[in-house]
Amino acid sequence: AINNAGQVIGQVSYEDGVTQSFLYENGTLLMLLPEFEEGLSTKVTAIADNGSIIGSFTDPLTYAEKGFYRE
Predict the structure, then answer these.
(1) What is the distance between the alpha carbons of residues 22 and 32, in angstroms, rounded to a whole number?
(2) CA 33 – CA 41 distance, rounded (Å)
(3) What percent of the chain has pLDDT over 90?
(4) Contact call for residues 21 and 31 (beta carbons, < 8 A)
(5) What is the C-alpha R_g of the chain?
(6) Nearest to 48 by CA among 16, 7, 14, 10
(7) DSSP 3-state of 29
(8) What dihedral angle (degrees, nearest 10) is formed by the CA atoms of 63, 65, 66, 68?
């Protein structure tokens, strides 16, 4: 997805089944990880024109899918 500011979000899927989300802006690629643990899947859903991102991640304890919001 891309917003009116030119920011791009998406996902990369690896061979082990992990999906990792990214934000691309101004020539820089930023991988979006859950703050508490690496290696868990993240999925971005939308990006607003102000750069706010919504998506989901896999909880490391329950393996449940939970939502996140990033400003």
Answers:
(1) 5
(2) 8
(3) 49
(4) yes
(5) 12
(6) 7
(7) strand
(8) 110
